[in-house]
Amino acid sequence: MNVGDEIFGNPKVNPEAFTQAIRRLAGGVSIVTVGFGADRTGLAVKSVTTLDNDPRRILLTIERSHSVSNSIADYRCFGVNILSADQHGLADRFAERSTIAEPARFFGARWKSLVTGAPLLEGALAAIDCTVEEVIERQSHAIVIGRIEAVDLGRWSDPLLYWSGVYRTIRDLETVPFSAVG
Length: 182
What we know:
Elements: H1 15-23, E1 27-28, E2 30-34, E3 41-45, E4 48-53, E5 56-63, H2 67-75, E6 77-82, H3 88-94, E7 111-112, E8 120-121, E9 126-138, E10 141-153, E11 161-163, E12 166-168, H4 170-175
Antiparallel strand pairs: 1-11, 2-3, 2-6, 4-5, 5-10, 6-9, 7-8, 9-10, 11-12
């Protein structure tokens, strides 16, 4: 079966076709942070979106097996740090594939807290401080709904994107031919 042969609603969706479809969805890169002191943990994600505007809420998904998921359940607060294009090195440190142990991932960057005490990145495009409103466990992931307690707007800059398995910028998208991203 070719990737193009997949039909909507087929219960036996080709896993590779699904992976390729999701890789075509560009997303902004954020670091979700939680914990205090030596018990801090974080993860680079592109699975953050707004949920509601009154009251202001945010939604994200995290693999249930990751330490961030457990810490969010324990601490009941977290930070979402939206990265700029020049912060791809920091995103690598917090990527799931990173071999850097916690809390060493936090070293070399400046962190602060606002309302909840969750670690927030100084110099992020924006840092959003949240309390946990609800955690919904579904198969391998937790869907986390956070109530926004505070927002810190950083300098205006191009965002860091993740598309087709690599970090990109908006300017990159203007020059990368679609045939080159498989």
